[in-house]
Design brief:
The protein is an alpha+beta fold and 176 residues long. It is built from 6 helices and 10 strands; from the N terminus they run βαβββββααββββααα. The chain folds into 3 domains: 77 residues, no CATH class; 46 residues; 32 residues. The N and C termini lie far apart (53 Å). The protein binds zinc ion (ZN) (2 copies). The site of one zinc ion has 8 residues, from loops.
Length: 176
């Protein structure tokens, strides 16, 4: 079947679609979806493709929906975005960051939050990264914190403080 199709070309594919010509989308990525093979199904006149989603699911999506960008995942992306949008981080503390407010503008499909670091810096952080602990400080104060911690460790070791106690004190600086 795919032998009869014109090879997908990003520059002309959507023109081809509009003119009603079928193109081979095998292996072409649309957001989280990768087109695997065309099926015998048709939807609104366009070929329905079997697609593999990054999350592991497989879905059937018509070429038209793929080309127009209407569908870019099996539905997992939308679910995540809705869940993320519903998450209110306002006033919550994540390590040294205090989430102040969500801001307009998105990064990789996630909601950005304006956060204030204990050091005084303000940064924009994806809500997801706050939850996972990937971001817990502004990043700028990190080298300073590290060198301070190293000095502290050396001092504690010299003064015969136990490893457990040192780790305990470190975790108060680095919450992960
Ligand atoms: Zn998915
Ligand atoms: Zn900071």
């Amino acid at each position: 079947m795919s032998g009869k199709l014109k090879k997908y070309d990003p520059a002309t594919c959507d023109i081809a679609l509009l003119s009603g010509r079928a193109v081979d989308r095998t292996g072409v990525r649309y957001g989280r979806l990768v087109a695997i093979e065309p099926t015998a199904k048709r939807q609104g006149g366009s070929i329905v493709w079997r697609c593999h989603c990054d999350c592991g699911e497989e879905v059937l999506v018509s070429a038209k929906l793929l080309a127009t960008g209407s569908i870019a995942s099996c539905g997992c992306l939308r679910r995540e975005m809705l869940a993320e949008r519903a998450t209110n981080h306002q006033g919550k503390r994540y390590g040294k960051l205090l989430a102040l407010e969500p801001v307009e503008g998105r990064q990789g499909g996630g909601v950005l939050w304006r956060c204030r670091c204990d050091c005084g810096n303000e940064v924009l952080v994806r809500g997801n990264f706050l939850v996972t602990g990937d971001r817990w400080c502004c990043g700028k104060c990190l080298p300073r914190e590290k060198s301070r911690a190293m000095k502290q460790i050396k001092y504690l070791v010299k003064n015969g403080v136990s490893t457990d106690e040192i780790l305990l004190r470190l975790y108060s600086v680095f919450p992960r």
